[in-house]
Specification:
Blueprint lengths: L1 H28 L1 H4 L1 E14 L9 E14 L3 E12 L9 E13 L6 E16 L9 E13 L4 E13 L9 E13 L6
Antiparallel strand pairs: 1-2, 1-8, 2-3, 3-4, 4-5, 5-6, 6-7, 7-8
Amino acid sequence: MSLGKNLLIVLGLGAGLMGLGARSAEAQAGLTATGLRVDVAGGFTVIHANEGPAVCGCFFMNGGSGELSVTNGRNISFVTNVGYTSATNINNEDRNLALLTVLEGARYSLDHGGRFVPFGQALVGFAHTSSNYVIDSSTARLALATGGGLDIRVNSRFSLRPAQAEYLFTTVPNGQNNFQNQLRLTAGIVFHVNKLNR
């Protein structure tokens, strides 16, 4: 669990530094003038995970995620997402699991300058686990996520993200088919590094 706390601290510091760096770049190069928008987001994440294919073996993992997105205009964004979730005493057994995902990809937002901005995205990257159960231990493995969500603008600096739902596919060793089909849910806040002008 200390790894998860340390990772979330690093993510928070990294997001803050990225925000400061982007603000400096905006002042020097005029990000708004070029049409680029930089957003930093953080949230609470829950994953409905599964083990092998023979039985569900379903359990919940929870943790957090951090995200950096760069938007060219209003609709297309390049997204980097880092998430960390963990579970202990899985299915009432002495078994712990932590999952780190690092994903990048594209997002399309239905942004018409209003308060509500729905979006869909597809991301690809890797997943890494740590566990006291041997078959879950792994190096970086392929991970994919696709889904969508909703941002609600509060003001020119902040938006709320009350709901984001994704299908998360990972290829972590599980002693059977070595892949998992999971549901990832996130809610959080978005900080608009260069102030929105709507």
